[in-house]
Amino acid sequence: MNYLDELKRISKKIITKTIIIFLVIHLMVFLMSLFSIIMSDLKFNSIFDSTFDIIKYIFYSIFITFFCGYWMTLSICNKDIECYKQIYAKNIVLDILNKNFKDVIYRPNKFSEELSSKLKIPTVDFCYFNYYFSAIYKNIKFEYCDIELYHNGSSRNSSTNEVFKGKWLILSFNNKFKANIQIGPKNFNGKRNGQMLKCEYYKKVNIKNDKFNKKIVIYSNNENEAFNIITPDRIEKLKYLYNNTYGKIFLFFLDNKINIGIGDKKNFFEPSMLSIYKKINLEKENRKIENQIKIIKKLIDYWI
Questions:
Q1: Starting at the edge strand that comes first in sequence, how are the strands of the sheet with 181-185 ordered?
Q2: In Å, how far are 46, 83, 204, 218, 268 from 222, measured between CA atoms?
Q3: Is residue 187 included in any domain, yes or no?
Q4: How many domains does the chain have?
């Protein structure tokens, strides 16, 4: 059995379970509603009241069915959904990555302590990520993942503050930068006022471009060296990125690495829930992943 047949088999299994879940919940809601009507001994004074109550119960029935059905489906079918995603990742995604990059190492749904230690982002105490891969493009080694960054904690819970959610790209160079630089949108706060940029040990770098300064803020521990790194050509590329990319963009020049974060809260390396319930369109899925890879290549090309 090839992977497409396996995806089709799992999809049918999920659909069957979902139908059964919704039918069972709908039947339970109907019986509960009927029991409630009988016990309350409703007396309708007019046809309008009778119709209104019937519509009300129908509405409640539909709402509860879909609300409970959705969460129960995610819970009961979670193992099958994760299995579908794993097959999708290890076959469709990995095949396209190997066609576009060299020395690909792909670890979907696996936490990497090594990557976590490389971030060194001020205000970030904990990160959670998946769909991690590393590769080489034009002799530049890079790492990519979908990531969530938090501060004030060491795990994902109610006490931690999410400061970023989106794509993360780390470019590694042979030479170390002579200045550490932070670049991000002006006046940005993450969820619950978590800060992504921290200027306690950095000075603000003012670029001679009013439009740029209104939207983007730059901090560095060495202002003079920062101007040598953020050249006019790179300023124009930054402006293009900020104007043509969905989501907040952050850049961190740290040691010999450039960290690039795009806070679009999207994941293009996994199938959508809707696509799992349909026959997989391989051409469409390939096109979606290829478009994401074009963004990664463009981001790398900007800095080499």
A1: 102-107, 126-137, 140-151, 161-172, 257-263, 248-254, 181-185, 216-220, 203-204
A2: 80, 49, 10, 11, 37
A3: yes
A4: 2
DSSP code for 177:
P
| Tokens at 288, concatenated | 């979606």
| Together in a domain, 10 and 122 | no
Residue that terminates a domain, selected from 43, 76, 109: 76
Domain range for 70: 3-76
What pTM was computed for the model? Answer: 0.77
pLDDT tens string 88-135: 988 999 999 999 999 999 887 655 555 555 666 656 667 777 788 899
Q: Is residue 166 part of a domain?
A: yes
- The helix or strand, by DSSP H or E, that contains position 151, with its residue range, turns out to be strand 140-151
Q: Residue 88 domain-assigned?
A: no
Cα–Cα distance, 61 to 111 (Å, whole number): 41
Listed residues 44, 76, 108: the one ending a domain: 76
Residues 108 and 227 in one domain: yes
CA–CA gap between residue 72 and residue 15 (Å, rounded): 13
Distance CA 55, CA 146 (A): 44
Nearest to 226 by CA among 190, 162, 181: 181
Q: Tell me the pLDDT tens digit for each residue of 21-44.
A: 878 877 777 777 666 656 555 544
CA distance 241 to 119: 22
